[in-house]
Amino acid sequence: MLYPIATPTRALLDLSGLWKFMIDEELTPIDVNKPLPTEDVISVPASFNDQTASQKIRDHSGYVWYETNFEIAKPLRSQRLVLRFGSATHEAWVYLNGQEITHHKGGFTPFEVEINDYLQDSNNRLTVKLSNLLDYSTLPVGHYSESKDENGHIVRKVDENFDFFNYAGLQRPVKIYSTPQAHIDDIVIVPSVDLADHSASVHTTVKSSDDFDEIHVAILDQAGKVVTSGTGEDQTLAIRDVKLWQPLNAYLYTAKVDGIQNGKVVDTYSEPFGVRKIEVKNGQFLINGEPFYFKGFGKHEDTYVHGRGFNEPVNVLDINLMKDMGANSFRTSHYPYSEEMMRLCDREGIVVIDETTAVGLMVTFGFDVNMFADDDYEDTTWKELKTAEAHRQVIRELIDRDKNHASVVMWSIANEAATFSKGAHDYFKPLFDEARELDPQKRPCTYTSIMMATPKTDECIDLVDVIALNRYYGWYIGNGDLKTAETATRDELKEYQKQYPDKPIMYTEYGADTVAGLHSKYGEPFSEEFQEDYYRMSSKVFDEIPNFVGEQLWNFADFQTKFGIQRVQGNKKGIFTRAREPKMVVRYLKNRWTGIPNLGYKTK
Ligand code: BDP
C-alpha cells in the first residue's frame, strides 16, 4: 500500500485537527444520519485517553465516536478520492454523510476507501465509531469480560494481557488523497546487490488500474538525477557504481513511476528506496556482506498527552538521542509503528526489526515467573486463543505496508508467545511460511522469546533465522543478584550457541526498572546504580559469545502501562525517562556503543 503523498497528479488533504468526540455509553443508539450529540472535542491524531480530565473517559472500555466535517474543492471532484486512515485503534466503522463506507479491524495498520460515491457538494460529515476492546481473537490479546451495573447497563472490561497501556483512538494521520481515474495502485521494489561489481539490479513491479498504455520507471539518485530508466509493469533496472544504504549512513534512491496514456503522464508517484543486502549466514547477520551488530532498543510509541498517538518531534528527538549514543537500531515493539517513523528511519539509516501486533499470546502471562517452576503448571494458550486469522491479517498488512523500506531488515512475527507450549509449532509454522512467501525482499524472520522458552523447552526455534531473546536474569529472576544472573546469562547463551551454531543470537529485551533520581550506595534494585551494574554485567557476557550479534535493551524510555503492584505510573525500565531525560546509565552505554563498530564487530 502506497504512503499518501502529493505529486504533480495527486492532491493531499489532511484531516488532522479538532474532531467531535464522545464515549458511547450504550444507553441510546447513535444515529449516524445526524451530527454526534456532543460538543466535546478531541485532537487527531493522538490517543483520546490522556486528553481528558475525566477518569471515566480515560479508562473507558468499549466504543467511542469521532466526527469531523470537511470540504472538497470542486476541481478535485472529477478525481478519484480516497480516504485513508494511518490506523484506527483497534476496530473502526466509518460513515460518510450517514452511510457506512468501510470497516477495519486491527489497530496499527492503515486502510483506505474510495469516497466519490458518498460525497456531497459541501459540508461532508465523516463519522467514525471505534472499539478499543481486545479479547482472545484479537491482536494484541486481552482478557475480555462483561458485567451489568446496578441499572442493568452493560459494563465492558479489558484486562490487557501485555505490559503497556491500552491507548486507543485515531492515533495516526487521517488523510484524503486524489488520483486520476487511471492510477498507480502499488509499487514493489526489490534491489539485488552485486557487492563485488558495485552494481545492483532493481526489480520493480507496478500495480495499476490497468488502463495505462505504458508504465515508465525512472530511478533517481539523491541529487534527483536519473541514473536509469525503463518501460514496463515488471522490469529490472541496472544501477552501476551503486551507493549502498548502510546503517547510519543511508543513501536513498527514488523510483519515479509514471502511468502514461496517449503519450501523456496521467499519474505519477515517487517511492524512496535504499539498496542493501541482508543475509543470515554462519551465525552472523550480514548487511552488505559485513557482520552487523545491533545496538539499540525495544521502544514504544508512548509520550505524554499524545499517548500512543503520532508525535513527530519526539520521533525526531528519539532518533537523535539514539544516534548520539552510538545506537543503530530498534524493534517496533509491540506493534507496527507509524509510516512516518519508518520513512524517518530510512533517511537516518536506523535499522529496524519490524514487529506485528502479536503480543500477549500466552494466556498465563504475568510477572510472577515462579509459577512456572510449579510441577502442576500447564499453559493452555494454543487451546484457548483464536488469534490465527488476526495474526495472518497483520502479517499481510504489515508486509504490504513496509515491504519497500530499506530500514526494515527483519520481521518479528510475535513477542513473547508461549512457544514452549504444546501446539505452538502448529500455530506458528504457517505464519512464518506466509511471511516468507509474502515478503518480496525475503527478509529474515524471528520472534522474541520469553524466558520460559529455553534451548530445552522452546518448540519453535527451527522457524527463526535469528534467535532473539527477551531475558531478565537479575530482575524478574533472582532480583538484585547480579552474580547469579551473570552465570545464568552466560550458561544459557553458551547453550544456544552450542545447539544452533549457524543461527545468530541477540537480546531483544533485557533491563531493570529504575526510578530516575533514586540512588543507592549499595546498588540496590530500582536505583540508577543498579541499572548501570546490570548493563555492565550483561555487556561483559555478550562479548564472550561469538554468535551474539546484538543488544537491544528494554526500554528506550519509561512508558505507561496498566495498573499493577509492579508498576509505579508505568514501566520504569527506560534508560531515558518518559520526558526523555537521561538516567545515569546512558553515559555508560554511550561509551560502550560508540566504541563498537556497526559493521565488523568481533571479526576485525
Ligand atoms: C516483557 C515484555 C515487555 C515488558 C517487559 C517488562 O515483552 O512488553 O514491558 O517484559 O516486564 O515481558 O518490563
TrEMBL record:
Provide the Glycoside hydrolase family 2 immunoglobulin-like beta-sandwich domain boundaries: 182-276
From what superkingdom does this record's organism come?
Bacteria
What's a single GO BP term from this record?
glucuronoside catabolic process
The Enzyme Commission number assigned here is: 3.2.1.31
Glycoside hydrolase family 2 catalytic domain: which residues?
A: 278-596
Q: Which InterPro entries match?
A: Beta-gal/glucu_dom_sf, Galactose-bd-like_sf, GH, Glyco_hydro_2, Glyco_hydro_2_AS, Glyco_hydro_2_cat, Glyco_hydro_2_CS, Glyco_hydro_2_N
GO function term, MF aspect, one: beta-glucuronidase activity
User: Which keywords does this chain's UniProt record carry?
Assistant: Glycosidase, Hydrolase
Domain named Glycosyl hydrolases family 2 sugar binding: which ranges?
14-180
Pfam families on file: Glyco_hydro_2 (PF00703), Glyco_hydro_2_C (PF02836), Glyco_hydro_2_N (PF02837)
Family statement: Belongs to the glycosyl hydrolase 2 family.
User: Per its record, how is this protein called by name?
Assistant: Beta-glucuronidase
Q: What is the lineage of its organism?
A: Bacteria, Bacillati, Bacillota, Bacilli, Lactobacillales
